[in-house]
Give the backbone structure.
Amino acid sequence: MRRSRVAALLVPFLIFSEREARAQAKLPTIGFMGQSTASAEAARAAAFVQRLREIGWIDGQNVAIEFRWVEGRSERSAEIAGEFVRLKVAVIATVGTPQVLAAKQATASVPIVSAAMGDPVGTGLVSNLARPGGNVTGLSAQAPDLSGKRLELLREAVPGLQRLGLVGNVGNPLVILELRELETVGRALGLDVVTAELRRAEDIAPAIDALKERADALYIAQDLLTFTNRHRINILALGARLPVMHASRENIDAGGLLSYGPNYSVLFRRAADYVDKILRGTKPGELPIEQPTAFELVVNATTAKALGLTIPPALLARADEVIE
């Protein structure tokens, strides 16, 4: 009798729990794959979530967002992409060529939106920008196209620059394209160019040590490896008395000298617009890949002082932000 009474009391709870579970299961899920860590990409993730809220998608109410972090380890990209496929997410949102490649290899059907791809056509992610086809869309960071502009700014910041050290992860096909472009542009500018190749975090210290007697400044080709290790790179470069050019402002917050590139918070907000369209039924292959329109030059005056550099006033006047 007691068991029957307990069972009767549990029935309403079980029915409610089952209904709640079914309701939760019906929420479309966004799989968010960050290339670094939650703390490192907090501003980017916040911009993405905020924009989703502005256009009507609220986490836990009418959409679910599953956050995963690659933490700078390339093998994690494939693991996370596979997990998202098993979770049957409605769309994968990410950033960076290796992460998009991993997601594309994991699924040909789940839509993939990238907040930034360095060269989506050159790396074979899409056939063309206007109508990408397949399941990949988003925004291009124009990495190879910006190389020449960054070198010009670096030359302006470091008077007398003659020897340029390039550092990049050659396990990333985009970085290989960028390094080739940099070698061509650098030599056209009359610079002696030497390249240090990275494949893992353990290569960073030997690479910078090898360049300290062979270069007057460094250009870091950004990807998940260098972005995750940006503090370490900047500390080692400062110890070697080498000014460093980066691709995004987070690296300057971490002690780099200067950066020039798209505003990543803006790119992540725009990526949320892509996700919105896909959740409402648009096929990813029909969404043109956009080029960034907002670029920012950031200078770290504290790092310049530590290096004994005097940044030209004209360059400081053009900077979007000077970190004191």
Observations:
- The domain at 144-262+296-323 is CATH 3.40.50.2300 (Rossmann fold).
- The longest helix spans residues 2-25.
- The chain has 13 helices and twelve strands.
